Amino acid sequence: MKEPVRIAITGAAGQISYSLIFRIAAGDLLGPKQPVILHLLEIPQAMDALEGVVMEVNDCAFPLVRDIVATDDPNVAFKDIDYGLLVGSRPRGPGMERKDLLEANAEIFSVQGKALNDNAKRDVKVLVVGNPANTNALIAAENAPDIPSGQITAMVRLDHNRAKSQLAQKLGKHANDVKTVIVWGNHSSTQFPDLSHCKVDDKPALDQVDQDWYENDFIPTVQQRGAAIIKARGASSAASAASAAIDHMRDWALGTEGYVVSMAVPSDGSYGIEPGIMYGYPVTCDGGKYKIVEGLEIDDFSRSRMKATEDELREEREAVKHLFGK
Ligand code: NAD
Ligand code: LMR
Rounded CA gap, 242 and 64, in Å? Predict the structure, then answer.
């Protein structure tokens, strides 16, 4: 058995965490040979509920769980962590856009960025799930100047998985047959789920569906899927969000073996996107590092969609600049 790694999960008494914690504890993130110490963060008012979650984790007698730290102090929660899953924040309700949460949640991520900076291991891998995820991740990164750039990322993997599933269902295939879906930009209704590089059964996806379905059905369905789930469930997606968070972190840590996945990472200017914003890109992962896939041809339709979601992220950045550390 290896030495245990420390994994922080914020919003640990919330709905996403109620799935996420148990799957991580079962080994779904880092495999069946990697023991874990769970660092669970909540706000003071939710500490009783968190205690209930801790009781349940203990009752599972998970072979991989070596210890649990349950706290309402981000400095304790992030002490020496190897991985951080930043889930804790308010979800939207019906009729809201995710960016309506900007003000409510932004403060959380400036505080937590500082706490990461002061306490986490320098090679910590951080995923922001709490919405608006891309800009919250940017706020955290701007408040964590001593954590190397690129170690704080945001989640577009749920959108990536949704896109795979929608296309597979349309073609009567399995999601495993779908390769190189890309979700560019923001985890919001401006995101661009791009099929122009996608293959299904090794043949171009766009030769197998018509352009009208792609533009007027597939793209809006993926963009609006979060809202559709809120309408159907009366609460935002939880188990699927937890599953996507595990996919994002597992692939980053253990590698994608050449497969392309989507991660929101600080733009390095690739594809002409404004440097610095947290933008969904196609990446491959190897040796604990991700790499943006370069050199893809971008047609005019894709370019305009990529620009629309970039513009939204620039606006969000402007709105929260006052929270960036000096
Ligand atoms: P929830 O309300 O069930 O749980 C959120 C938890 O966070 C609560 O227990 C709350 O007490 C806690 N919390 C609030 N402020 C905190 C703080 N400062 N520190 C620690 N914990 C704090 O919500 P949920 O359904 O679990 O969703 C959490 C977030 O994830 C929401 O913002 C939601 O919109 C977002 N989300 C993102 C994606 C994505 O794809 N990126 C998908 C689904 C949900
Ligand atoms: C989702 O995509 O399901 C989440 O971001 C929740 C939401 O507000 O849509």
Answer: 19
Is the Cβ–Cβ distance between 231 and 237 less than 8 Å?
no
Residue 174 designated active-site: no
Q: Where are the domains of the chain?
A: 5-154, 156-319
Q: Where are the alpha helices (DSSP H) in 68-177?
A: 74-77, 102-119, 133-142, 157-171
pLDDT digits (tens, 9 = 90+) for 73-118: 999 999 999 999 999 998 888 888 887 888 888 889 999 999 999 9
Ligand 1 pocket check: which of 131, 155, 224, 243 to mutate, most ligand atoms within 8 Å of Cβ?
A: 131
* Cα distance between residue 40 and residue 6, in whole Å: 10
Q: Please give the sequence-ordered ranges of beta strands (E in DSSP) within the chain, or none if there are none.
A: 5-10, 36-41, 65-71, 83-86, 125-128, 152-154, 178-179, 182-184, 192-194, 199-200, 203-204, 261-266, 278-286, 289-292
Q: Which residue has the tokens 């971008």?
A: 298
Q: Which residues of 3-18 are buried (b: 16+ CB within 10 A; e: fewer)?
A: ebbbbbbbbbbbbbbb
Cα–Cα dist 116/129, whole Å: 16
Distance CA 123, CA 120 (A): 8
Complex confidence, ipTM? 0.99
Q: Which residues are annotated as a binding site for NAD(+)?
A: 11-17, 105, 112, 129-131
5-10: strand order across its sheet: 65-71, 36-41, 5-10, 83-86, 125-128, 152-154, 261-266, 278-286, 289-292
Query: Other C-beta atoms within 10 Å of 32: how many?
Result: 9
Bind-site residues = 11-17, 92, 98, 105, 112, 129-131, 162
CATH code that applies to domain 156-319: 3.90.110.10
User: Quick check: 245 and 155 in contact, CB under 8 A?
Assistant: yes
The CATH code belonging to domain 5-154 is: 3.40.50.720
